[in-house]
Amino acid sequence: MVSSTEYGSHTWELLLTVDHQHEGVQNEFSLHVTGDLHVGGLMLKLVEQIQIPQDWSDYAFWWEQKKCWLLKTHWTLDKCGVQADAKLIFTTQHKMLRLRLPNMKTVRLKVSFSSMVFKAVSDICKMLNIRRSEELSLLKQSEGTLKKKKKKDKNSKEPATEDILNLCNSPASSGLPANPGLYSKTMTPTYDPVSGSPASSTVTWFSDGSVTEQNCSILALSHASCSPETLAEMYQPRTLADKAKLNAGWLDSSRSLMEQGVLEEDQLLLRFKYYTFFDLNPKYDAVRINQIYEQARWAILLEEIDCTEEEMLIFAALQAYHVSKLSLSSETQDSICESEVDEVEAALSNLEVTLEGGNKSKILEDITDIPKLADNLKLVRPKKLALKAIKSYWFVFRDTSVSYFKNKESAQGEPIEKLNLKGCEVVPDVNVAAKKFGIKLLIPVADGMNEVYLRCDNEDQYARWMAACVLASKGRTMADSSYQPEVQKILSFLQMKNWTMCSQTASEPENVDMKPECFVSPRYTKKFKSKQLTARILEAHQNVSQMSLVDAKLRFIQAWQSLPEFGLSYYIVRFKGSKKDDVLGVSYNRLIRIDMATGDPITTWRFSNMKQWNVNWEIRQVAIEFDQNVSIAFTCLSADCKIIHEYIGGYIFLSTRSKDHNETLDEELFHKLTGGQE
User: Fold this and answer.
1) pLDDT per residue over 485-531, tens digit each?
2) What angle do the packed helices 549-561 and 309-318 form, to 10 degrees?
3) I want to staple 540 with a disulfide (CB 3.0 to 4.6 A). Which of 176, 317, 443, 615 is the partner?
4) Where found, per UniProt (predicted)?
5) What residue ranges define each of the domains in the chain, with the CATH number in brackets?
6) Which contiguous run of DSSP H or E holds residue 253?
7) Rounded to an integer, what distance in angstroms lies between the CA atom of residue 355 and that of residue 366?
């Protein structure tokens, strides 16, 4: 028998590969080591043998076979499990990566390949001056979505529209820690709230970094739209299964880029993964607002989200005459910086405005009053063997329920039916031109969804009832502070749709220099001739012509958020006990089971009713328990189940955010909710 002391003293040979750029210098070294040598000591031995005077501080060991970094330098080789057959590569932790931003521009910058993706994205956002990095993540494009036409595959790595913007000289790119000041408002560059251009005095804070004034403009301003030909070449999902492909490639936030097979100079997509845009502020968020706008714009142009013809024209009008024209004009003019205001004074003045917002009696009245709506509405119930039955009733909306009676006089008695809207799906059914203001309610019942339509008489009535239904579906009442803003948001969207023909502008569409095909999805370019589209976009433009650049982008984002499918990420799943595949829609507050063939919602489950969820990593099955003894389990077919697990945990994490927390992130909580134990 050999004692442990004698065994530990035995040396063995370890072959190490050094990833360096020096020509004529060997890159493989053989060292005699012992199992009790720590990783830091191995680094020191190797550097002494290389004998090249350079900064090795960014270098670490990458274990090729196990696909992991040896970052705990105090661990011994025995503790790490390293033996003589291990292939260790001594390589830099920060490497060049190409990122395609939501505005379809590609930036090239140095990113940590050894940090968890969550941390890497945080550093990237600091370089790009995007607040709230937790809303974004990195997406690897699946083969099926790179290009629509096979003959273009050879160019699939290159962006279709722009050259690559090099941002490789920032402190974070050099392996140094990124400036933490970006998460402090007092250190964040300010932007002109009207034009969105950066205030030059604050850009000087970044003069040694990557975000120069020119780069700020590229990231914060929208540029000319792509050609219809380019649009036609891009991947456009036709079915729910196609849409599921778009979300299959999200990287695991709890693992590093290198661990997930990402190589130096690879291209990834930087996208807003979670559709909860917290604390959007034009003064600090010009880049963030522009990138959200661009992601929304491309989602609509490529039909990743469905919208009506009326809505498509509104989106086209906001693009064509505001974002495109104002962006071009702001490039040619010097931005007029408003006088600098001390951050603390600005915050105090905002607080003062908030506190003085309403009088005391009104506030007291709002607290003591139980809000309710009561109106004559039309009830439409689809019948299987007959036409739709449309009948007028007296409706009363109280708390999160709607009751209806034969008439106003009978409202003191028992209702004909009481509908509890908590957890239901609310879908707008509106055509302003035809004076149609409908609300489609899909109410969860034991065997699926109960479908009910409400018809309103006018815009005001629709806005009040629609806002109440939306809040009730989330378990909130009209007493909630978000009710009135929701009403105003709906009304403003309706007003944009309710354009009136302006004869002077619309009669001469040929005099306007625009390509309408650039502002609508290919489906509408096939449906209408170019002159017809131009005239209709000009009609729609009448209601948005007085907005500033940032207002136009924010209005575009709000209109996008109003679409029924907004915020849904689709995955193909097989539910436990089911014999067919379904589509699972994941949103910020709910999960929706959708029939793959018809696209109709089958069941909705709210996160607010969720008791717990877990993953059986052996069979890759997600199991979720809800209130009232409801439990579901499914396996994910179109992506790894870890992606859905991370989506659920990520949305719950984002719901804990508060402005009081000084914009600091609890990274440990995020990984606890999303990491899982594989």
Assistant:
1) 999 989 888 887 775 444 344 444 444 456 777 888 888 888 888 88
2) 160
3) 317
4) Cell junction; Cell projection
5) 11-92 (3.10.20.90), 371-478 (2.30.29.30), 569-674 (2.30.29.30)
6) none
7) 16
